[in-house]
């Protein structure tokens, strides 16, 4: 939708009006037939129609283009009242700068920043409202450290609040201790399984070494027996040599 033409000061050229809503163009687009529309208006129109609402020529979203520069300049130079005029703002500025002004306008209605408060106040009165808002929060004057809402002042009990917090901390500590316990048990169990696996591997290696040692001892005994046999044969040969 466009800008309400009643907000503008002086004459507004017909060519700067949306062909659909008949208000002053907002975020304008132009069709090949040179008719101009607000972006929201023409997009909504083309959902149900495939032609220009002025001359019925066929158009498509892809054919829409930004407004000619000279028309855009004329549009930006138009003077209009702030939308908060009904609340007391007397600012009149160009269309090009109206959005910037209205974002900062002291007469703009803005929501209270306190959680739970649904009141909307003028920006210039926000500080005053925050000072008396029933949803404003402050630190307990008795020193318990709690942040309380003004509406809860009469119900606030430092001892009860601290006891509740202590119970929450106790429950949280118990949960953390249990989590740490489970984590340690899991780690110990994992290490235990690793040690058992390692022990099994070492045991197999020991058995293999024992088997190798047994084979070596058997080989040594065989070599010693062969050596004795060889020595006896040499001694026998020596005796036969002497006899000869």
Enumerate the spans where pLDDT stays under 50 for 5 or more consecutive residues.
none
CATH architecture of the domain at 5-104: 2-Layer Sandwich
DSSP strand count: 9
Distance between the termini: 140 Å
Order of helices and strands: EEHEHEEHEEHEEH
Task: Write up what this structure looks like.
This protein has 244 residues and is mainly alpha-helical. 50% of the residues lie in helices and 11% in strands. Among the domains are: 5-104, Zinc/RING finger domain, C3HC4 (zinc finger) (Herpes Virus-1, 2-Layer Sandwich), CATH 3.30.40; 109-149, no CATH class. The protein has five helices and nine strands. The strands form four sheets. The chain has a three-stranded antiparallel sheet. Strands 4-5 form a two-stranded antiparallel ribbon. Strand 6 and strand 7 (120-122) form a beta hairpin. It starts with 27 loop residues before the first strand and ends with a helix.
């Amino acid at each position: 939708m466009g800008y309400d033409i009643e907000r503008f000061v002086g004459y507004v050229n017909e060519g700067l009006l949306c062909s659909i809503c008949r208000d002053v163009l907002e975020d304008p687009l132009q069709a090949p037939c040179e008719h101009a529309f607000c972006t929201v208006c023409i997009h909504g129109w083309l959902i149900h129609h495939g032609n220009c609402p002025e001359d019925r020529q066929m158009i498509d979203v892809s054919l829409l283009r930004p407004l000619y520069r000279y028309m855009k300049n004329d549009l930006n130079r138009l003077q209009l009242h702030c939308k908060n005029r009904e609340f007391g703002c007397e600012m009149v500025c160009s269309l090009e700068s109206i959005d910037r002004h209205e974002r900062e306008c002291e007469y703009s209605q803005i929501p209270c920043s306190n959680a739970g408060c649904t009141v909307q106040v003028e920006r210039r009165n926000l500080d005053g409202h925050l000072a008396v808002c029933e949803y404003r929060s402050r630190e307990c004057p008795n020193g318990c450290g709690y942040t309380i809402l003004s509406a809860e002042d009469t119900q606030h009990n430092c001892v009860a609040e601290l006891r509740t917090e202590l119970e929450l901390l106790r429950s949280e500590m118990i949960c953390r201790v249990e989590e740490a316990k489970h984590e340690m048990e899991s780690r110990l169990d994992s290490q235990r399984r690793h040690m058992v696996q390692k022990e099994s591997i070492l045991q197999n290696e020991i058995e293999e070494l024992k088997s190798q040692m047994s084979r070596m001892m058997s080989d040594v005994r065989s070599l010693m027996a062969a050596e004795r046999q060889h020595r006896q044969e040499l001694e026998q040969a020596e005796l036969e040599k002497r006899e000869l």
